[in-house]
Design a protein that fits this description.
The protein is an alpha+beta fold. Helices cover 44% and strands 11% of the residues. The strands form 2 sheets. It has a 6-stranded mixed sheet. A 3-stranded antiparallel sheet has the order 6-5-7.
Length: 440
């Protein structure tokens, strides 16, 4: 997150949280938050967003879209694509100067073409002031120069370890381990019991990226330092990769080719007992028409990612941004659409309909009842508060976005874990690949 040190980030987050606890409820408006914007006459908008993993997400999102159209008389077309398909389509739109007015994309895609995006600083300031402020990671992603905002955070797909409580207990554990040593012991015990886990190691934008970065950071490794110097070939990275090799030995076969949908399917099919994922698995089980799958919901629980030798949370979650492209004929209408969708009247019900699949970027939404109505939801509540940006510990920009799009960390972990390369060889290859993007 740029030059902000981890301890400083945690202090800021703690301060924000304390302020939120003492502040007004989220539906009490800040009288000083002012917004003035008149959409262009005859405006029409096209929105490209990622496909839903939770049906309630898209159902409520489209209800909110319809409410916007009814209020403003602006026709809005919404297209849905998989995460892996949104990124290249956004890049094509930026390069050709034609395409959707608004694109909901992932991680630091916006940093690949910031000059092609509408400055939304006024909207970011308005929402931040009204709803208790943005979490620090939001500024790391979408305020790269420390001044202007190049997008509006939508939230993140919170990532936790989804597990079967009965299988964990059968493996000899009364509770889910909180550190990496205990976690590895659990994974080995599950494998011995014939109820293994499985983590995506294909080029998965969400699940593959989030857990491999957690692993790297948990052992003190990182792709780059605060000056954007590539430092991934380090003793800390080697230790992380040695751990990955032991962990991989406990996985169900086939994880090297897993993309984002695969671990969901494997878990609900009973093939794995633990996997890192959003709350979508729990949602799917609770709403399933299959009696056996629905029965599984009572046995599902969630835990935050274990703490490694680094001694602090080192989580990465799939960050979602909302970008308005400069080629849009209706930038004011586009701003109004995003503002409308982020207001409590729309955003709150959307969070609840998706049972918290997207974790909020604005502090005030911590009070949304979705996080406490079911204790199994609660681990996802602080996903944005404790997460690091994918370009940690350097600055966000063309290099971080390019390196993330090239799956350098995911590939390094997959190579070392599977034995395709030794940990040393995998780290050396990752170093060379990263240096193509980072030219200090």
């Amino acid at each position: 997150m740029g030059k902000m040190k981890r301890r400083d980030f945690l202090k800021v987050s703690a301060g924000i949280t304390a302020g939120a606890a003492a502040g007004p409820m989220i539906w009490v408006k800040d009288a000083h938050a002012q917004w003035s914007n008149a959409p262009e006459k005859g405006a029409k908008l096209r929105v490209l967003r990622w496909s839903r993993f939770v049906q309630g997400d898209i159902d409520q999102y489209m209800k909110n879209v319809q409410a916007f159209s009814a209020k403003y008389g602006i026709e809005v077309r919404v297209d849905n694509e998989g995460w892996e398909d949104v990124r290249p389509k956004a890049a094509v739109a930026a390069n050709t100067g034609a395409g959707p007015d608004i694109i909901l994309s992932t991680h630091d895609d916006a940093n690949m073409y910031p000059e092609k995006l509408v400055d939304v600083t006024d909207l970011a300031n308005y929402l931040g002031k009204k709803y208790g402020g943005w979490y620090p990671v939001c500024e790391a992603y979408l305020r790269p120069n420390g001044k202007n905002w190049i997008g509006i955070p939508l939230g993140c797909a919170g990532n936790c370890l989804v597990y079967r409580e009965s299988h964990v207990k059968a493996a000899g554990f009364s509770s889910f381990p909180r550190d990496t040593d205990g976690f590895l012991k659990l994974m080995k015990a599950l494998k011995e019991k014939g109820t293994p886990g499985g983590f995506a190691l294909g080029n998965a934008t969400g699940d593959g990226n989030v857990w491999t970065h957690w692993l790297l950071w948990a052992f003190g490794g990182k792709l780059v330092d605060a000056s954007n110097k590539v430092v991934i070939n380090s003793p800390e990275t080697i230790k992380a990769l040695e751990y990955a090799k032991e962990l991989y030995a406990t996985f169900v076969p086939g994880t090297l080719s897993w993309l984002d949908p695969n671990n969901n399917k494997a878990f609900l099919d009973g093939q794995v007992s633990v996997t890192p994922n959003g709350i979508s698995i729990y949602y799917a089980a609770k709403t399933s028409q299959d009696a056996k799958v629905k029965e599984m919901a009572a046995d599902i629980n969630h835990a935050n990612m274990p703490i490694g030798p680094a001694g602090v949370p080192t989580e990465l979650n799939l960050f979602f941004n909302q970008m308005i492209f400069k080629y849009s004929k209706y930038p004011k209408a586009a701003k109004e659409f995003i503002r409308f969708m982020m207001e409590q009247e729309q955003y709150g019900p959307w969070m609840q309909a998706a049972i918290g699949y997207v974790t909020h970027p604005l502090v005030a939404y911590e009070k949304n009842p979705i996080w406490t109505v079911d204790p199994k939801h609660t681990p996802y509540r602080d996903s944005m508060k404790i997460m690091r940006p994918i370009g940690y510990a350097g600055r966000m920009g063309y290099a971080s976005a390019g390196a993330a799009a090239d799956f350098i960390v995911v590939n390094m972990v997959a190579e070392a874990a599977s034995g395709q390369r030794t940990p040393k060889e995998a780290a050396e290859r990752a170093q060379k690949r990263a240096e193509r993007y980072y030219k200090v």
